[in-house]
Design goal:
Number of strands: 2
CATH architecture of one domain: Up-down Bundle
CATH class of one domain: Mainly Alpha
Distance between the termini: 176 Å
Shape: elongated
CATH topology of one domain: Ferritin
Radius of gyration: 48 Å
Strand order of the largest sheet: 1-2
Order of helices and strands: HHEEHHHHHH
Largest sheet: 2 strands, antiparallel
Strand content: under 5%
Structural class: mainly alpha
Helix content: 55-70%
Length: 267
Amino acid sequence: MDRPDSLHRHALAAVAVAALALAGCQRHAPPEPTAGGSSSSSETTATASNSSGGTTSGSGSVATGSPGMSGSPGAGGRDANAAGNLNTLPPTAAGATAAASGVPGSTADAGGTSQPLDAGDRKFVTEAAAGGMFEVQASKLAADKATDPALKTFASMLATDHSNANDELKAFASAHNLTLPTSLPKGLQAQLDKLQKASGKDFDKQYAQIVGIKDHKEDIAKFEKASSEAKNPELKAWVDKTLPTLKEHLAAAQKLAENGAKTASTN
């Protein structure tokens, strides 16, 4: 009875070894392909990769997401579904600057315009521009027609100073949408016509009296009034800067007239 029991135990051991070997073969054998051509393990990998935010290629490899397309605030990108829609692009710094530059009155505005001037300021600027234009035209005429060398020098100084002041006033008026006159008003044009008809000593006397003294006295009175009444601070600063020059012109013209009177009395 001992021998059959021994044989029975050996048979059972052999069956167990065979079962283990069969299980090992099944574990290492490749899975049967499905109808779609992908394995169950690949599907598991694809499912896991999709849940982590990536995508799978045809070979089953995992691709990472593109940077800047997360769509999260501050990520610098857009939602991946909106990749083809340019309207969803965030505004650039240049675009924001360009939008801000369209504000009227800003330094970046194409016209460089500022707030409109007060009615009193507009009137003064217009009259000052006309007076400056007359000074330049009359002084250029005197540079050619005057017989007194000192008067010629004085006229050249006036032409230069008033040309510079006129350019500054034009720039100011342009920045405030104010159109200045391009021709002399009737009164000043009549004075210029009178000077053009004069000649010799008569011209010297008229120029010194009309342009050097009379016109500058009128200008100084207007500038002093504007210095205290101008509403625009830039205009007031320009008036205060120009006023001393006008007073110097008047003093020089009065001195020329005195010297001319002395010369006439001695002859």
